[in-house]
Specification:
The chain is of the alpha/beta class and 322 residues long. It is built from 11 helices and 9 strands. It folds into 2 domains: 190 residues, Bordetella uptake gene, domain 1 (D-Maltodextrin-Binding Protein, domain 2, 3-Layer(aba) Sandwich); 99 residues, D-Maltodextrin-Binding Protein, domain 2. Strands 1, 2, 3, 4, 5, 6, 7, 8 and 9 form a 9-stranded mixed sheet that branches. α2 links the parallel β1 and β2.
Length: 322
């Protein structure tokens, strides 16, 4: 028996490094828990293409939308921990831990970490004929007319939903929230004037802002954006402490070998250092994460801190999903 156990241990020690050294040997699936064409999907396809070249195997993006990103995340949590199924998710990975009462997975303990990809700024926007001419006027107008104003979002747990909750808390004014099944239809109705206000990522609003089809009022970053230098920050216009960005990270199922996660992390760092990726992200109002942030430890720390940050916000709002 001792000889058998010794042989098994020796085999394990030999096969684990060999597995990591040979990885990847086939196609990798990157699950994006939102619809194709949305801001998270855009980020995923940018990095997947470059990582494919570095890894020597194609990364295929699979969109598994629904339930605020929890369906796709749950699918990855149950996948084989072999490095061939990965998840690219945004801040909703952290907020779902409080938003959803019956998650099919335990967020902090269901995944391994690859690294942060990017932090996307948010912009407070409105239909193009919205009455206020600047953000201070916007604040006054919303406080005076909150009962009759609609605030669109892409569904519970979406970036626009989270930013909208913070906006209503900061203004101390409830608005009529209108949830949609995705960013696309939410933006379509804002463009058509069926809704009044939205707070969403630059990856989803830049084209419309530059085209004049929606009106932009403020950014949610600590400093103004080079992309929109004339837009004030929410804080400088009177909303003290109003700051939110939508960070994205890559995860693997719990139990994925550390060597595999490190290989994916190095590939992610290579992709984010690519000039083409940096330019594409700049055009969307964001930037690649640093090499230090595109590492497992950085993503783990980010997720843990964001779960703690958003838990009291969500509990104060009293908004939950089953």
């Amino acid at each position: 028996m001792k000889k058998l156990l010794g042989a098994l241990c020796a085999a394990t020690m030999l096969t684990a490094p060999a597995f990591a050294q040979d990885y990847p040997e086939r196609q990798i699936t990157m699950v994006v828990p939102f619809a194709a064409g949305g801001p998270t999907d855009t980020v995923a396809r940018l990095v997947a293409e470059k990582m494919s070249g570095d890894l020597g195997q194609q990364i295929v993006v699979e969109n598994v939308g629904g339930a605020g990103g929890t369906l796709g995340a749950g699918q990855v949590a149950k996948a084989d921990p072999d490095g061939y199924t990965v998840l690219l998710h945004h801040i909703g990975m952290a907020t779902a831990a409080t938003l959803y009462r019956n998650l099919a997975y335990d967020t902090p303990n269901a995944f391994e970490y690859v690294g942060l990809v990017t932090e996307v700024p948010m912009v407070i926007v409105a239909r193009k004929d919205f009455e206020p001419t600047d953000f201070k006027g916007f604040i006054d107008y919303v406080k005076a007319n909150g009962d009759s104003l609609t605030l669109a979002n892409a569904g519970i747990g979406a970036a626009s939903h989270l930013c909208g909750m913070l906006l209503m808390q900061a203004l101390e004014t409830p608005l009529v929230t209108v949830p949609y099944k995705g960013t696309g239809p939410a933006m379509t109705d804002l463009l058509g004037g069926q809704t009044d206000i939205m707070c969403d990522q630059t990856t989803n609003t830049t084209q419309q802002i530059k085209g004049g089809t929606i009106k932009a009022y403020a950014v949610t970053t600590p400093e103004r954006l080079d992309l929109f230098p004339d837009l004030p920050t929410a804080e400088e216009s009177g909303l003290a402490g109003f700051e939110v960005s939508i960070w994205h990270g890559i995860y693997t199922p719990k139990g994925t070998p550390a060597e595999v996660n490190e290989r994916l992390s190095k590939s992610l760092q290579t992709a984010l250092a690519d000039e083409g990726v940096a330019k594409a992200m700049a055009d969307l109002g964001t930037a690649p994460s640093s090499a230090e942030d595109a590492m497992p430890a950085a993503l783990k720390a980010k997720l843990e801190s964001e779960i703690a940050r958003w838990k009291p916000v969500i509990e104060a709002a009293g908004v939950y999903a089953d």
